[in-house]
Amino acid sequence: MKDVAEYRKSLAIRVSGFDDCGFSPQLMSVIAKQAYEKPTPIQCQALPIVLSGRDVIGMAKTGSGKTAAFVLPMIVHIMDERELAKEEGPIGVVCAPTRELAHQIYLETKKFAKSHGIRVSAVCGGMSKLDQFKELKAGCEIVIATPGRLIDMLKADRMFDLGFEPQIRSIVGQIRPDKQTLLFSATMPRKIEKLAREILSDPVRVTVGEVGTANEDITQVVQVIPSDAEKLPWLLEKLPGMIDEGDVLVFASKMATVDEIEAQLAQKGFKVAALHGDKDQASRMETLQKFKSGVYHVLVATDVRPAKEHNHISSWQLNGDIFRWTMKDVAEYRKSLAIRVSGFDDCGFSPQLMSVIAKQAYEKPTPIQCQALPIVLSGRDVIGMAKTGSGKTAAFVLPMIVHIMDERELAKEEGPIGVVCAPTRELAHQIYLETKKFAKSHGIRVSAVYGGMSKLDQFKELKAGCEIVIATPGRLIDMLKADRMFDLGFEPQIRSIVGQIRPDKQTLLFSATMPRKIEKLAREILSDPVRVTVGEVGTANEDITQV
Hints:
Low-confidence stretches: 156-163, 304-310, 317-338, 482-489
Mean pLDDT: 76
Largest sheet: 4 strands, parallel
CATH architecture of the largest domain: 3-Layer(aba) Sandwich
Organism: Turnera subulata
Keywords: ATP-binding, Helicase, Hydrolase, Nucleotide-binding, RNA-binding
CATH topology of the largest domain: Rossmann fold
Protein name: RNA helicase
Domain DEAD-box RNA helicase Q: 16-44, 342-370
Helix content: 40-55%
Domain Helicase C-terminal: 231-383
């Protein structure tokens, strides 16, 4: 690669202070406020080259000022572009391998960008994908991201209402063609109906109750409140009476609204907690447990519904549509099978499985189980529609265990045989716990693959082999990709992102280390880069005492 000394000589540029760089007065003011007396060695070497538009590889120890070495020129380049219209951008993209480093770069970048009204968006884990997607769609000049989450955002732009249709297609496309596919739900939006028709093979439709009708076990009372401002006073007035009768769930469509309601109720002395996607999995599960055990009397949530009976549910913001549709009728198919299930002993389950069923205090199959079990056991694809809490999970998990026991025993690192996808991590976790109860009786291994837990641990568990995977589609796709990644690195993600950026881009790679695989990647995606190195690559940081 071209050496920095040779290139700087050809440029005839020497940087000994920030005033040598031609930064705007606004930017110089921010630099002064940050107490930067003079450029660090990596900044002295890199700034003139980056400002010239060349691709650069910058190597220097942690804490040496690498971030400013590429952020300051980025701001200069952005100010030379025309002003972006609404929903345009980004102009600059910064990728970091971890969310912690991405957040650190994000905070540093915002300090400088603010001086010119440049919008900076953070796209990394630990924050709501929906909020990040909306922020990106609104437009920004700079994106600071982890590659995986950025790819999610790029894909999300082509997704159905941020739904999971493309993810399901991706997963189904990687499963053998002679699979059995089951879709169980309490609702059936049109887009999911269309998907079902395409990925299920001549499915039998099992419906308990009328699809789209209200659950007859729930008394629904509509209270028309003239304005948003009057909602909270109404709730505060009614809440004590509701709590006297039982626990209370309050639903809102936005996370910010959830937090606002929780704060207002807590201020009034209510035992209240909030539940939404911005909270990590551990705290969400802890909150649910405390709500179930009575520590909290009120739970304010987005679309997370705990598995418990409640006396009062208040919806703060109503949304959603109800659709009805038809496919092959279950009565016709059951007639052809000549099978009738009135008890679990009609299903031919093993003694071990029957023992677990008895321990769960299941006296007899629920209506959805009576209809679905014989059909699923026959190997047909099934669409099952029944209300929440009707026993849909057991209707597909029990036959899955039977089918798995009919397969040869898996060798180490083989599997899975069965994959269950759920749209939310909460539902996935609920199905995971239910499945483990039954699977344990036959020594069947169940792996959980969804957000809120370590990807690395999940990847290792999958690689070790299992019979059943319970997953959210996005995380499962991450795992499928990870199997082809460099030591769980992010090389394929970077290639994917770079491939979607215009060819006349300027690409900068700044790091404290340079593994061979990353160096190989750099040679391929950077255009004749200048290499800037401060200190000896691979040596210990002299500012750290190692004992």
